[in-house]
Amino acid sequence: MSGATLMARRTRPRGFAPWNPRPDTLALVQDVEAVLAAYAEHLPLTIRQVFYRLVATRGFAKDEAAYSRLCETVNRARRAGLIAFAAIRDDGPARYEPAHWADPAQFLADMMHDAQRFRLDRQRGQAVRLWVLCEAGGMAPMLARTANPYGVPVLTSGGFDSLTAKHDLACELAGELETGVRAEILHLGDLDPSGEHLFASLAEDVAAMCRAMCGAQPQFTRLAVTREQSDRLALPTAPPKPTDRRRFTGGTVQCEALDPVTLEQILRDALEARRDYDAVADVLGMEADMRAALLAQMGGRHD
After folding, report:
1. Domain 119-276: which topology?
2. Which of 2, 72, 150, 260 has the fewest CB atoms within 10 Å, i.e. the most exposed one?
3. Could you give the CA distance from residue 236 to residue 34 in angstroms, rounded to a whole number?
4. Using CA atoms, how far apart are residues 85 and 76, in angstroms rounded to an integer?
5. pLDDT of residue 8
6. Distance CA 10, CA 269 (A)
7. What's the pTM?
8. Residue whose C-alpha is closest to residue 212's, from 244, 184, 171
9. Which neighbouring-strand residues pair with 302?
């Protein structure tokens, strides 16, 4: 079969493709653009996050058919240049590449740039060491922007049905617990049987490993989505899947149903509530002194 015949039989666009959508589809594209503009400071968003903003603000249907239509529409709009590729986050392929430089001058410039960004562990001296676990991998970069200034790592917990992942986390936590600090994991996930089961099994399994390793265990706290948040914020719900027999009360809520501003504020409030500001001041002072000394050794400027 010739290449021309294959191209003729294709029904889906390839590459960048011009598009003349119907009026109702164009209206949906405009609604998506309005959501992206409203949350410009929080981009990129996942399509699931856009979906829940449309459900909450545009009366968009909350069902799989509507979500599939949205995915197809956003796909075509991105190919046609109507929606910026950078505005939407996909969980795409990973890339692993060795570092390289054009010449020694570029290497030295990069080292100077790194020295100017020198920072200590922002959790140094804190009585409680924190981790954030997010069930939805696509939301992790957004949460990381909030957690980064606090020195708190963000992990995606969707893969934590893996025994290896649980063991690796337990080893990291046990290493901190052995120094006498407390450890707390802040979890954000769906309010549904699967999300609650994942959280409970993760907490029980990792805690048991930590007790065996160091005689202490971390605290696990569910930050979102809680039933109280669902009721107070009037989040869109759906009945549990009839095939899921695990005990669960009330409607299910996806974590993406929380708008990005609220989601980040929930995390920020939790981090602020657990922060020792005297310890932070000490770390920032040491960090500034060390950065200045490092830049002086390298012959660079510092403020």
Report:
1. Rossmann fold (3.40.50)
2. 2
3. 20
4. 11
5. 47
6. 50
7. 0.83
8. 171
9. none
